[in-house]
Structure formats: C-alpha cells, structure tokens
UniProtKB/TrEMBL annotation:
Stated name of the protein: Alpha/beta fold hydrolase
SMART domains named among the record's database cross-references: HTH_LUXR
A single GO molecular function term of this UniProt record: hydrolase activity
Pfam families per the UniProt record, alphabetical: Abhydrolase_6, GerE
Keyword annotations from UniProtKB, A to Z: Hydrolase
Keyword Hydrolase: yes
UniProt keyword Magnesium present: no
Length: 343
C-alpha cells in the first residue's frame, strides 16, 4: 500500500495533514499523543499495523496541530481544539457514517466526537484509552514526567518510551524515542501530554450511541486496565477485549492480536497483511535460532524462562507459515543478507 497525503484547514485555522491508504468503507484513526505521518510509515511494525487495519477498506489518519506534517498549534491544546481538527478531516470522509478509532489520548477525543455527533459514527473502537487523565498516574509522577519533557526532551522521550514499549529491545526503544523527538518540539510535547492528564470524558460516555469495542492490554503501563473497564461500563453495551501484554503502543508486541478483534468488530475479514512481520522480540529469538540455540539457551540469553522461549518459537512458526527451526534460521539468514544486520 502507498499512502496519499493531503492537507485541510480547520475552522480555528490549524493546518492539518492527513494520510489515506486503501479504498472502501472509511475508518478514521485518531492517534495518541504524538505522530508523524511520514516517519511512522517508515517504521516496519507501525506501517504493518496500519496496513492490516486498512486491508479491505480506507484508513485515514492525521497529525494533530504541532505534530508531524501539520502546522503549529494556534493556541493552547484543548478538547475543543482536538474536535475542531477532527471535524476538518471528517468532512473529507463523505456524507455516510464512518468507523472511528482512537488510541491512547485519541480514544478520549473519539468518545467526545461520537457523543457530540452520533449520526456520523457507524462503529467506535477505543484502544489503550482512559476516562479520567487524573487517574492514570499520581500527581508526583505526572509532574516529574512533564518536567522532564519540558527541561530535557531527550531524557523525557526515553522515559516515556520505556513506559509505552517496555518489552521492546533497546534498539527499538531508541528508535521510538527519536521518533517522538522528530514528531514535535519539547514545548508542544509537554503541552499535549499535560492535556492528556487533564482530559476527563466521564460525562460523555452515556451519550455514545455507536456500537463500541474497547481493546486494552492487561498490563498496559501507561493506561491502567481499570480505566478500560470504566470506558466499557460507561458506554452502553460496549464490548471489552483484554489482551496480554504491557505495551501501550498498539503496533508494539503482538500487533496482530490487536488487529484481529478490531477487524471482526468492523465486519472485515481476517487480515493476512503483516502476518509475516515479526515483533522485535521475535526477531531476537529468530536470530538466536539461526545461531543454533536451543530453547533453554535462548531463555538464558534473553533473561526469560524456557517456556516463554518455546512460545516465541512457536509463534514465529505460525507468523511465518513455516514448520521447523531450520526454516526459521533460513528465513532469518535471507532477511539478514537482504537488509543487513537486524538490530
């Protein structure tokens, strides 16, 4: 797939860049805290996640003002400003109701939109969201992180990456930290992060009329599971799907496990796109398999138990559609030769 980038101006005067991929029934995607349409498309895991969502339909996502390819913030960030930008992009979706998905802070924006514009939303998907920003961390932790982002954006992005993707290997976390810094300035990042802590949509949940799916990882370090429960409980007849894992970013960890229930809920066939894409941890395991390591040796090298190593090998076989460790080794060697060392 190739993404098509265009721009629109919101009522408040913000220039908003948006990208479209695929064709068919539209799914409008509201991202979390920071984004960059071009840089995210260059990250294999993130691109595979978007392509999996877009298969058989049209996926539209955008950079909020102050981020990525969009123009600067025209005032302090707020829910009203968020909804103004979403409205500008939604106008390009056509007159028919569209599917709406929000991740992280974007989940709160999606709820607010669905509550205020019930006739525009066919189905609503919320991943890694919360009801009250005040409940996702203590005031001490919040002030510490905001201070780090404001005074030392490099260190702040490293700390946030460890929270957002704790199971990713060091090289992946370093890449994600750079991605955050390239997506926004420290001042804008701090302002948007403060907004995520300030937002509360408790009074809007009962106004949502669209069928709703809430997806959350059980040990999400950025958004406690009880906030997903609160979302699902507050929205009439919402369905909650809890997945294993600690990563807050939907494309880190087992991204296909996130995609599968979303596609079923939206009435789409199971995606095969991205089925051959391994997670960062699975690539590490594949590299050790190619060295001839047993499951016990893999466990020792990675600091995990042997049963976990065995599970990783099995999921690699399933993801790649192959049967043996020798085939895993051959696949890894082929990838290594084409693209250089996998780090």
């Amino acid at each position: 797939m190739q993404q098509r980038i265009a721009r629109v101006t919101s009522t408040a005067g913000s220039e908003v860049a948006y990208a479209s991929i695929g064709a068919g029934r539209p799914l409008l995607y509201v991202s979390g805290w920071l984004s960059h349409l071009e840089l995210s498309w260059e990250l294999p895991e993130e691109r595979a996640f978007y392509e999996s969502l877009a298969e058989g339909g049209l996926l539209v996502r955008y950079d909020r003002a102050g981020c990525g390819l969009s123009g600067p913030l025209t005032g302090p960030p707020s829910m009203a400003h968020e909804l103004d930008q979403l409205a500008a992009v939604a106008e390009k979706m056509g007159p028919e109701p569209f599917d709406l998905m929000g991740t992280s802070m974007g989940a709160l924006v999606a709820v607010a939109w669905a509550a205020a514009h019930p006739g525009t939303v066919r189905r609503l998907v919320l991943y890694g969201g919360w009801v009250s920003g005040a409940e996702i961390s203590t005031p001490e932790v919040r002030d510490h992180i905001l201070g780090l982002v404001e005074s030392h954006w490099g260190l702040g992005s490293d700390v946030l990456t460890d929270i957002f993707a704790p199971d990713a290997p060091a090289a992946t976390r370093a890449r994600l930290a750079l991605y955050q810094r390239a997506s926004s300035s420290a001042a804008t990042a701090r302002a948007l992060l403060a907004l995520s802590y300030d937002l509360d949509i408790g009074d809007r949940l009962a106004q949502v009329r669209a069928p709703t799916l809430v997806v959350h990882r059980a040990q999400d370090r950025a958004a406690p599971l009880d906030q997903a429960d609160a979302l699902a409980t507050g929205i009439h007849d919402a369905r909650l799907v809890v997945l294993p894992g600690r990563s807050h970013l939907p494309y880190e960890g087992d991204a296909q496990a996130v995609v599968a229930p979303i596609r079923r809920f939206l009435g789409l066939r199971a995606s095969r796109r991205g089925a051959g894409v391994l997670t960062a941890r699975q690539r590490e395991v594949a590299a050790l398999v190619s060295e001839g390591c047993t499951n016990r040796e893999i466990a020792a090298r990675l600091g995990i138990d042997e049963r976990s190593a065995e599970g990783h090998v099995e999921r690699i076989r399933q993801r790649l559609g192959i049967r043996s460790r020798a085939q895993i080794a051959a696949w890894y060697t082929g990838q290594h030769e084409r693209s250089g060392p996998v780090k």
